Structures are given as C-alpha cells and as structure tokens.
Amino acid sequence: MSQYYSVPRKADWNYGGKLWRLSRSKIDLFLECPRCFWLDNVKGIKRPPGFPFNINSAVDTLLKTEFDVHRAKGEQHPLQKAYGISARPAAHEHIDVWRENFKGVATHHAPTGLVVSGAIDDLWIDDDAYIVVDYKATAKSEPVTELNEDWHIGYKRQMEIYQWLLRQNGLTVSDTGYFVYCTGRPNEPAFDGKVTFDVHLIPYTGNADWVEGTLVDIKACLDASAIPNVGDHCDYCTYRAAVDE
Prior knowledge:
2 domains, five-stranded mixed β-sheet
C-alpha cells in the first residue's frame, strides 16, 4: 500500500461521518465531475493526488507573513498603495482560524443540512466592507495580469464561495475581490539561488448566486443510491473507461 495513497478513507471523514465537511475544493470537484465527487465523499475513494506545489505554498506563507506585518500596524501594504486602493489588511479576530486548513470559514446551510467551509488566504477591509483576497503563484515568460483562460473559472468560483461563506458569517463583503498573482521569471540571466517574481493585483467582481442551487444539487448527489454520471471533461473517468475496455 502506498504511503501517499490510501483508500478507502476512514468513515468519519466521509459523508455522514462526524468529521466530514463540504469544503470549497469538494464543491469544485462536484462541478467538474459528479461521479468522482460521489466516489470521494460517499465511498471514500478519492482521486490519486498530484504532486504538491511546494513553491506555491512557500509564496503563500511569505505573503501572509508580509501582509501580517502591516495588519499588526493597522497600515496599508505597499501593493495596495501602488494600485491606488484604500483597502488595508483586516485585523479580524477570526482571521487566523479562517486561514487555517481543515478549519477555515464555516457555516451550516440550513436548507440542506450541510456544513460548508473554506480556508481563505487573506481578508482586507475598505471602509465597512471586507474584501476577499486570494494568492496565486506560477512561472511564465510574461506576468499574469488578467484571468482570461478557460481554467481560471475555478479561481473565480473559489473567490465567490469565500464571499458567500463570509456573508453567511454576518460580514458585509464587497463583490470585488483581489488576486495577488505572483509570476516567477524563468528567463532571468542567472539563478543565483533565488526566483524573482512579478506581483500584480487583479480585481474580480464575483457573483455567488450559483452557490445555493449548487448546494441543493450536491445534497441530492450525496443522497443518491446510484453512482452519478461522469463529468463532461473528467480525465480520471476517461482513463478508467479506457482501462476497462
């Protein structure tokens, strides 16, 4: 048995178990492929994991540390000043819990009985409205300055789920969130033991109207006795089908 992949998982972590929650990533999995979602959450048979993005995680940690310095001082970060926005890092009493994996921002969705949760990267405030902020890191020849790729829909949904979760917790949340997008430069003349990043602030106006209906669909999927249909573009299910031929 692989030390990195063990199935099925313990029942407490499956749907109906005392530790199970509907995370932001699970919602995205449902939208991608209801069958993979059902196998994961009902049967405890998750997809094989990809390689961890340790550089991305390091960038996230460094950004949080940097913004926390300005949060503690109650002042703006230079990036906020550079883009001419009046927001500053929010010193909310629950910020540390809301940013912690396996805790995050959580709410009980009364119509379905589901506990929905997601861990945010950062929270800013402008006047009386909170602003959801997500950190992204990649490496490209040109810096990322806009979210115009088809696969960026996942980033946008992520932002909208976080906005919805915070509103369920009683916060006034701006429709406009921000992505702090860090693009590593692969074409520098020398490595010299460091990667240089271009950092851009990308605004996104979210619309979380889809969340409520999706939660209802997810509840129906979880309670279904038969395995759901395959998603339209699921590479995992396509692979399984090819192997079974």
